[in-house]
Amino acid sequence: AALAAAAAAAPTLTCLHLTHCALVQLPDAVCGLTGLTELRVCHNKLATLPRALGALTALRRLHADHNALTALPASMTDLVHLTHVSLEGNKLATPLTDVARFPRLASLHLDGNPLSFLPDLGPAARLRSLSAAGARLRADAGWTVWRAELAAADKPSSYLPSSTASIPKQLEALWTLVFRRAACRHRLLAG
């Protein structure tokens, strides 16, 4: 009720952070905030995102890390302005399947999910940051600097330069996801 009142009072609200709120469901009023460009609902208990999420057509950044998400709503394909999607630490077995619907996507973070495959990333020409299977790959805008950050048990991440001659053992899980269903047709993966 308080969120609905806030939504009515703030029609130009662009950023909403509902992190660590113990939410089990995203309030319907959130999908009425059509001016939102950033939505952060991390560290809650969300098993789903609402079907009406697609109404947030101005949304550019979606962060729903560390919930219990098992699937994404079909209406998410209406969010064509998304540049950053972070869904780390959920229960997603299948990621965004039609990356072509997100032409501006620059960052896709899926680490910590039991993914069975990665989507074809070829259509995501602007993608410069990807995390999955314990690895985060990043490149600068001009593709001149590329690096891999690897999750480690004893420290948050370690870095490997792009000139590494062989594929490190730590990246094998990521390559397995990449090649399970899609060809390596993205410069970020070709590194």
Q: Care to describe what's here?
A:
This protein is of the alpha/beta class and 191 residues long. It has three helices and nine strands, in the order αβββββββββαα. A nine-stranded mixed sheet has the order 1-2-3-4-5-6-7-8-9, with no helix packed on it. The longest helix is centred in the C-terminal third of the chain and has 10 residues, at 172-181. It is globular and about 50 Å long. It starts with a helix and ends with a helix.
Uncertain parts? 153-167
Biggest sheet descriptor: 9 strands, mixed
Q: Work out the helix count.
A: 3
- Determine the mean pLDDT: 81
Q: Radius of gyration, Cα only, in angstroms?
A: 17 Å
Question: What are the secondary-structure elements, in order, as H or E?
Answer: HEEEEEEEEEHH
- Helix/sheet category: alpha/beta
Strands ordered across the widest β-sheet: 1-2-3-4-5-6-7-8-9
Q: What are the salient characteristics of this protein?
A:
3 helices; globular; 12% helix; nine-stranded mixed beta sheet; 191 residues; alpha/beta
In short, what is this structure?
This protein is of the alpha/beta class. Helices cover 12% and strands 17% of the residues. It has a nine-stranded mixed beta sheet with strand order 1-2-3-4-5-6-7-8-9, with no helix packed on it.
